[in-house]
Design a protein that fits this description.
This protein is mostly helical and 117 residues long. It is built from 6 helices and no strands. Helix 3 packs across helix 5. The longest helix has 23 residues.
């Protein structure tokens, strides 16, 4: 007796390729549960996001400096003169700066990309 015949005989709800057969009602219930978990997670992620302030004031100051000039934007400069740079990778700060440019400089607009991620 090969393995496929033994699986069919021992476990009638399992196909020979080892995947359980799921009816449409169970699948619909699983999708609704997954959607509910996703919506609850999104609600809790954005709940009182502006209550956190700027998160880290050092990096918030860098975002504000990046809004002032293109030089500061590309070099992720902390100070308005563009001399001191930030010790992190620039992509996250560029996204935060774009959000601050779009929604205005506030704690919510700086933390929004992190919440979306």
């Amino acid at each position: 007796m090969d393995i496929a015949e033994r699986i069919d005989r021992d476990q009638p709800g399992v196909t020979p390729d080892h995947r359980p057969q799921v009816d449409a009602g169970t699948r619909r219930w699983h999708l609704m549960a997954l959607g509910t978990i996703f919506l609850l997670s999104a609600l809790l992620e954005f709940w009182r996001l502006n209550q956190s302030g700027y998160g880290n004031t050092y990096y918030a100051a860098a975002v504000k400096s990046m809004l002032m000039s293109w030089h500061n934007f590309f070099f992720v400069s902390f100070d308005p003169g563009g001399f001191v740079t930030v010790d992190k990778q620039p992509l996250g700060f560029w996204i935060q700066t774009a959000s601050a440019k779009l929604f205005g400089f506030s704690g919510f607009s700086i933390l929004l990309p992190e919440a979306l991620a």
